[in-house]
Amino acid sequence: MTLLNYLISLLIIVLSVLKSADLFIVSDKKLNKLQGQFVKRTKQLHGNQKGNISLVAGSFTTIIAAFMLFMCQKMKLDYREAQYRSQSYLCFHYLNTQSEKYIKKISFFNWALKTAFIYQSTGTGAASGLEISKNLILARNIFHFNYIKNLTTNKYCQLTETISYLENIPYQTNAHRDLVTNFDGTTIIRNRKWTYRYLKNYHNIRKKFAFCLLSDFSINGNFFPNLNVSTREVGLTDLVNSKCLPGFQF
User: What are the strands of the beta sheet with 228-235, ordered from one edge?
Assistant: First the structure.
């Protein structure tokens, strides 16, 4: 009986082992199958991830390109605004310098013409005084029209930027820009005080960086002008309907 129980127990152990081995083999197969599916899924996921990486990389590249384009455009705009400022001041300085020289030189001609007129009023020096006056007037008129030419034709300014200076020549002129003079040939002061306006076209820059330049001129007399000049910059956004606006008459 004891032997029979031993045999039965041994048989149960063998069957259990075989069963366990069979279950292990089945489980191993199922595990291999799941592992294969997992590998396949992860490969698919990796393929999609590569697509996502490519998309992100493309988007990032586009953003960088757009940023670089923006920076280039901004640098270009900054350059135009710096150029606008430098060109404005170069032209403004040139026009003022020419006008100052013009006033001083015309004052000298006035003094010389007055002296020649007095000289020709004397009996003995009438002929020579008259000849001197004619030569002085010729030289002065050449200088006068050369001044106008320098205003309108130079390397610093556009013609439209010199309108205020042409409209406000310090001495009286007729419709042909000829000087109007006194009986002794001396010029006549238009005004003792006046203002020149300089405004450069600002269509290609930001308006907040646009400005106009104003020059206040004053002279005391026709022979010794004691010229006084003061300048200032006015932003277009600072004053509404200011003297900077085109069309304003001084």
Answer: 193-199, 211-218, 228-235
Question: Looking at the domain assignment, is residue 41 inside a domain?
Answer: no
Residue 211 falls within a domain, yes or no?
Answer: yes
Domain-embedded: residue 22? no
pLDDT tens digits, one per residue of 61-113: 666 666 666 667 767 777 888 888 989 999 999 999 999 999 999 999 999 99
- Determine the Cα–Cα distance for residues 197 and 243; give it in Å rounded to an integer: 8
Tally: H helices and E strands in the chain = 3, 3
pTM attached to this predicted model: 0.69
248 HSE (CA, 13 A, CB side)? 15
Token pair belonging to 131: 């000849």
Backbone φ, ψ for residue 236 (5° rounding): -65, -25
- Number of structural domains (the chain) is 1
Domain of residue 102, residue span: 71-235
CA distance 91 to 153: 11
> Distance between CA 195 and CA 220 in Å, rounded?
15
Residue 100 belongs to some domain of the structure: yes
166, burial (CB in 10 Å: exposed 0-12, middle 13-18, buried 19+): middle
Phi, psi of 198 (to 5 degrees): -120, 125
Give the C-alpha separation, 90 to 207, whole Å: 20
CA atoms within 13 A on the CB side of 222: 17
